[in-house]
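Agenda item 2: calcium ion complex prediction
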Amino acid sequence: MSDIPTPAPHILVAEDHAALRAQIVAVLAGAGWHVDEASDGRLALQLALEQPPDVLLLDLGLPGLDGLQVCQRLRAEADRHIPVLMLTARDTLADKGNGFAAGADDYLLKPFASDELLWRCRALARRGELGRSPLLERGPLRIDRRSASVHCAGQPLPVSGQAYRLLLALAEAWPRTVSRSELLRQLWADEPPESDALRSHLYTLRQALGSAQSLVKTVHGVGLRLDVPG
Ligand code: CA
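Presented output:
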């Protein structure tokens, strides 16, 4: 595999108004985003914690948990900062203040233009990317995103291509177990590979890790996890 596709940015759209949600999803999917949907606050929180999106588009008025509650719990429980774009019809200063106090990164008032939605989502995804350190240290593993290189206990390891992307996905998600479907999405965006590609890249990764291969654990029926001490 010579060209590695860039994974589509991932957004979770939490909006209970079905027609508006469908409209938002169409705009984002049309612009190349991978879109997950939630129609209530509890599902939104669960999905955001299980598969952290690059951006969470969060309606303020949601059943289950409202947008403020989702945002507060996300900030308390997520293992990384998930950029939140709060969506609301309310436009009083106090409502905006409440949203930012709950941890929102930006605000968009209904009704909005599709272009503005896309601009704000892109800006938030970019900001999230910039805020991440290029170095990931997980137990004996040290991954440098700038050079796409991997060291284990100070020794360079020949991890490249999709095996590198696989290891990076596990390291970024650590200590979470990453499901097979999430890995497929992260590695191949919206172009699913032939059925055994993930297994073959996992094999390649384990070969490259050598004596450190036990760090990549298969969690049966769930997915893969990097097994390093916290
Ligand atoms: Ca609503």
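Discussion summary: Confidence is low (pLDDT under 50) at residues 1-5.
Owner for follow-up: CH.
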